[in-house]
Design a protein that fits this description.
disordered C terminus; 6-stranded mixed sheet; 13 helices; oxidoreductase; FAD/NAD-bd_sf; FAD/NAD(P)-binding domain; 7-stranded mixed sheet; 394 residues; monooxygenase; monooxygenase activity; alpha/beta
Length: 394
């Protein structure tokens, strides 16, 4: 028999834990089932924009994360030789969107989210299967190695390869390869000072950003067939692809050990789902709308999903109505951004860089304008823990 006021969250990543906290704050008892043996995230750092920080304000975590994170935004775009062709301003972004863009380790965010849950809420090392999505007058059911759970709500937050999504929508084609792979490192690089940047080369890009704890978060991406791996190690692969690019990239690569480098192919959901719910089960984050990382909104949208789901947990159709159009549009924008930044035609690159540089000089706000409707989003819940009114609601 379903326990009154109980929700089961399948997946203990950022979206799943945010949903668990938001549902817990609404008064539900929550159980988080995570397949991995710990909550240690796969990944290095995460960039949080004003939209997701406002969502974290709803659960009382926004100000703490602002304090723990590095405030970013000053920097811009460079060519492999080091020439700046577009500059960005953290102050301008903060003024336009009513809050900062921040960067922090994923592990820090996971740790702070988990700390807001009861001690017995999270179960790791549990392979959970949705056996019944539930419906009117019928509980949802989740099967685990320890038995079956009946519950009023199931949240599928189990990532881009979501098993829950496959149960809800078995005819959906699932994720597709985005055409590129990514590398990430998060390491100390003593004695190196630099401005945050993303550098675009032919079919490749690199980003370098400082963290508040003194470490450096850096990432690379390159067009490559799916499933590829370096013949030796991934650090050597990065040296081959980026070793002759501008400072501080060589210093970052020199400081990295082979075991520091994470490599993952990128996949996204190209065909939108018909809904983000079925019966008493809802999807969020990559399980619902996986997108390329090129506008930095994947994790941000998962956090948005989580607080909106908690707001509409008694009406999942309203959750779908609130989230599906927005996330579909943002995912499509991320695909376009990936194609632009990873362009491989030298003639096309010359036109792109010249156009971006000209626009940045003539109307700097045009670059920020591409995030209108994204970074200025405000969640439906009140009040905000920070006491700040979101820019979008002034």
């Amino acid at each position: 028999m379903a326990q009154p006021g109980h929700a089961v969250v399948i997946g203990g990543g950022i979206g799943g834990l945010t949903a668990a906290v938001a549902l817990h704050r609404r008064g539900l008892r929550v159980t988080v089932l995570e397949r991995a043996r710990s909550l240690q995230p796969v990944g290095a750092a995460i960039s949080l924009a004003p939209n997701s920080l406002r969502a974290l304000d709803v659960i009382g975590l926004g100000d703490e994360i602002r304090d723990l994170a590095a405030w970013s935004g000053d920097g811009g775009l460079r060519t492999p030789s080091g020439r700046w062709f577009s500059r960005s301003s953290a102050e301008a972004a903060t003024q336009r969107f009513g809050g900062p863009l921040v960067l922090l380790p994923r592990a820090t965010l996971i740790e702070r989210l988990a700390a807001l849950l009861p001690a017995d809420a999270v179960r790791t090392g549990v392979a959970a299967v949705l056996s019944d999505s539930g419906g009117p007058g019928r509980a949802a059911r989740v099967t685990t190695p320890d038995g079956e759970l009946e519950t009023e709500l199931v949240v599928g937050a189990d990532g881009v390869r979501s098993v829950v999504r496959g149960v809800l929508f078995p005819g959906h084609p699932g994720p597709v390869y985005s055409g590129f792979t990514t590398w990430r490192v998060m390491i100390p690089v003593p004695g190196v000072r630099f401005a945050s940047h993303e550098t675009w080369g032919p079919g490749r890009l690199w980003g370098t950003h400082p963290l508040k704890d003194g470490r450096v978060y850096a990432y690379g991406a390159a067009l490559t067939p799916a499933g590829g791996r370096a013949p030796d190690d991934e650090k050597s692969e990065l040296l081959r692809r980026f070793g002759d690019w501008h400072d501080p990239i060589p210093a970052v690569l020199a400081a990295a050990r082979p075991e520091d480098v994470l490599r993952h192919d990128v996949h996204h959901i190209a065909a939108p789902l018909p809904a983000y719910h079925h019966g008493r089960t809802a999807l969020l984050g990559d399980a619902a709308h996986a997108m390329p990382p090129n506008i930095g909104q994947g994790g941000n949208q998962a956090i948005e999903d989580a607080v909106v789901l908690a707001h509409h947990c008694d009406d999942l159709a309203a959750y779908t109505a609130a989230r599906l159009p927005r996330t579909t549009a943002i995912a499509r924008q991320a695909v376009r951004a990936a194609r632009l930044s990873l362009m491989s035609s030298r003639a096309g690159i010359a036109v792109r860089d010249t156009a971006v540089a000209a626009l940045s000089r003539a109307k700097p706000a045009l670059v920020l304008r591409s995030f209108d409707g994204i970074a200025d989003w405000a969640p439906p819940q009140r009040p905000y823990a920070s006491g700040q009114t979101p820019a979008g609601n002034r």
